[in-house]
Amino acid sequence: MEEEVEPFYRELPKVELHAHLTGSVSVATMKQLITGKPHLNIKHSMTTIRKGQQRTLDECFEVFKVLHQLVDTEEDLLMITKAVIREFAEDGVRYLELRSTPRVETKTGLTKRRYVETVIEAIRQCKEEDIDIDVRFLVAVDRRNGPEVALETVKIAEDYMLSSDGIVVGMDLSGDPTIGHGKDLLPALQKARNCGLKLALHMSEVLSQKEESELLLTLPPDRIGHGTFLHPEVGGSMSLVHKVRQQNIPLELCLTSNIMSKTVESYEKHHFLYWYQLGHPCVLCTDDKGVFSTSLSQEYQLAASTFGLDQEAVWMLSQQAINCSFAPEAVKEQLQQRWAEYKSQLN
Ligand code: 6MZ
Fold first, then answer.
1. pLDDT in tens, 297-315
2. Does residue 141 contact residue 172 with C-beta atoms inside 8 Å?
3. Relative to the CA of 144, which ligand 1 atom is closest?
4. Which residues lie below 8 Å from residue 250, measured CB to CB, with a gap of 6+?
5. What is the C-alpha separation between 11 and 339, in angstroms, rounded?
6. Cα–ligand 1 centroid distance for 101 (angstroms)
7. Ligand 1, atom 7: nearest CA belongs to which residue?
8. 75 is an active site residue
9. What are the counts of helices (DSSP H) followed by strands (DSSP E) for the chain?
């Protein structure tokens, strides 16, 4: 799959803003984990959806359960995080925001705080190893776990935002969109916002989330994940579109993920086009590069071939993502410079 990507897309410097850690684990790393835990009896076909295959969103969430069984110690977590970061860097990603849900594994003694510390440690080690990528961490709330766990997660995120030298920058709201309601999570998200954490929220990933999206937009979030059903052509509303546009909230768009999990019918019908034509900030992302067998350079190539974008438009799409990131201003400026240098070599 990787060799199908043209060098231009691989060499293009890229920003990845929507990547779930466990879903980003590659086939190679997964093989290593499966081999190391034969007693779990997990087959590789249970962890990845191959090109051309599709699953329902429900089935995708079953895949995550299998993956969580495979990653249940600090050592596993450190190993997968470093591998994922290395792979993104090899794919030309120069700035990455990884998101992950802190988990407890009683059998191995993994706690939520050790989980967050281990991810931070992996990010630090990659920096020490001079891997050419700036990595930040968004602590994720799984909506399935309800308001109390959400509040607990916000507290954890707040503590590490203050002690991680800028590595923890925000929070994500994710998980099965058909379970729970955003209104119950609003107090926790409000609290996160008030203490300075940035918010990247999954919104309108399925049609039934219309009312919830209205509510979440009152926060407002700093970025929207997917936003598949926001616009009226697919059952959303102009009111939602207006609110998103008025507040200029960037959308994180994951083409392959949406096709493979059957929330979008085809690449041609992806809502990227709707928002892109409005001139609204759209950021191409992978979502779960391991589960959906993709890479960020592949997503750029797919967007270019599907929507007829030339190299200049592709470069602009990737450059625009810098300003949608939660990086400090000084980092954004450095990235802008790097992108400009790359462009001057292109011409
Ligand atoms: C919503 C998703 C997702 O947190 O263990 N996740 N949530 N929609 C999606 N679209 C396909 N893909 C992944 O990574 C896995 C977790 O990320 C969320 C789910 O909560 C999943 O359990 P971590 O690193």
1. 999 999 999 999 999 999 9
2. yes
3. 20
4. 223, 224, 280, 281, 282, 283, 324
5. 11
6. 8
7. 175
8. no
9. 14, 8
